[in-house]
Design a protein that fits this description.
Elements lengths: L2 E4 L4 H12 L4 E5 L6 H4 L4 E5 L5 H11 L3 E4 L6 H11 L2 E4 L4 H8 L2 H6 L3 E3 L8 H9 L5 E13 L10 H9 L2 E5 L2 E5 L7 E4 L3 E4 L1 E2 L4 H9 L6 E7 L2 H12 L8 E3 L2 E3 L1 H9 L10 E13 L2 E12 L11 H15 L7 E3 L7 H10 L3 E4 L2 E2 L2
Parallel strand pairs: 1-2, 1-4, 2-3, 4-5, 5-6, 6-18, 7-13
Antiparallel strand pairs: 7-16, 8-9, 10-11, 12-13, 14-15, 16-17, 17-19, 19-20
Helix pairs in contact: 1-12, 3-4, 4-5, 8-10
């Protein structure tokens, strides 16, 4: 096998797996069940195995037996550190979609160990974090100093119906906790609705914007702390019908990770909600579009400089079930292929802005109809 995809039955796992398989690779599809896996399992170069990430010893034996060179971890971030350590122990390259703060720093602390094993790990390689991190790397040479970075995402659909978003686990994290911002050089907490501005998005139009707790606050800070960074804020924008539904689920406790007892069984409400949500069908004719964006403010040669980047993605023909989630799954799969074929040769464990060369990465996104704009001009 070329790749192992962990949690291959989730929204992102199915996107990653399908792209790798359609590009001619062999893939071990590892998941806790085979729901919605029929089409993927039919690929001649696919194999399927049941795993339980709470039994990492068994998962490790399965991955080792596969002889895969790259692990793509699409599981909820609770398991990221365990899968990262497994990749290190087995000597496999590693990609995931992002971790919360404490886990991120625990992963980055393994940088030396990854170097010594001559392998590469990249954490946070989806949309944001992911594409937006690479955009920051792309614009960095334009500045001597950078004092402020704003980054975010917005999406909308052609039908006002609820469709399962990119990750119910991430939604629970972003909707139920205070946003953490860097303000005047110090990390501070804000209520999401303290952000009172609305933005006009390139592919969507005007939407209300909220502060969001995201890992970019910390990975961007690590990347720019020698550039004088003082302010970092992450924003999110949702169509009102989706935001209201998600807000209700959070407020009613359906995204809690605290177990409750039901007829003698211990169940986390979030696990139940995720299980129900992934069974919600995508309506016929339903399409989505998403706008990722980055604004950077600083100085060059003593003069004020601003850089604005945008990403536009949407539902692709033949990928309707994936909706606009392609801008999370495709970057992870592209990164895995670049590790596999040697285009990413640096060793260690990184956030994307520290390692990913923008030219091949943006080019691969462009081939898959994900457009990158630099100050309004399409560059891929």
């Amino acid at each position: 096998m070329d790749f192992v995809v962990i949690a291959a039955n989730g929204i992102q796992g199915r996107i990653v797996s399908r792209m790798l398989l359609e590009d001619g690779h062999s893939v071990l599809l590892a998941a806790n069940d085979d729901y919605k896996m029929d089409k993927l399992i039919e690929y001649p170069s696919a194999d399927f195995t049941l795993i339980d990430l709470k039994r990492m010893d068994r998962v490790k034996r399965v991955v080792k037996k596969s002889n895969a060179r790259v692990i793509v971890n699409c599981a909820v971030d609770d398991f990221n550190l365990g899968v990262t350590k497994m990749a290190l122990e087995l000597g496999k390259h590693y990609v995931d979609l992002g971790s919360e703060k404490d886990m991120l720093y625990a992963q980055l602390a393994l940088d030396k160990d990854f170097k010594e094993k001559d392998i590469t790990g990249i954490t946070g390689m989806g949309s944001t974090p992911g594409i937006t991190n690479v955009m920051l790397r792309y614009v960095r040479p334009r500045f001597d100093t950078i004092h402020t970075v704003h980054v975010g995402f917005s999406w909308d659909s052609n039908q006002s119906v609820f469709v399962t978003p990119f990750s119910m686990d991430a939604i629970a994290y972003e909707f139920s906790e205070l946003a953490e911002l860097l303000e005047e050089g110090e990390f501070r907490h804000r209520q999401p609705d303290e952000a009172t501005v609305s933005y006009y998005y390139k592919s969507i139009g005007k939407q209300k914007t909220r502060y969001t707790k995201h890992i970019e606050h910390h990975s961007f800070y690590e990347y720019l702390k020698d550039a004088g960074i003082q302010n970092i804020a992450v924003f999110s924008s949702f169509p009102s019908h989706s935001y209201n539904a998600l807000r209700t689920l959070v407020d009613l406790g359906f995204t809690s990770k605290e177990p409750i007892q039901i007829e003698g069984a211990s169940i986390k409400p979030l696990d139940f909600t995720m299980e129900v949500a992934r069974r919600i069908p995508v309506p016929e004719g339903y399409t989505e579009k998403e706008n990722l964006w980055l604004k950077v403010f600083g100085k060059k040669g003593g003069k004020d400089v601003t850089a604005e980047m945008d990403v536009v993605a949407g539902t692709l023909p033949g990928w309707e079930d994936a909706t606009c989630n392609i801008d999370t799954g495709f970057p992870a799969a592209i990164t895995a292929e670049m590790l596999f074929d040697g285009r990413l040769a640096d060793r260690g464990l990184f956030s994307p802005e520290f390692i990913m060369p923008h030219e091949p990465f943006f080019s691969e996104l462009g081939k898959r109809k994900i457009a990158i704009y630099d100050n309004g001009k399409k560059i891929n």
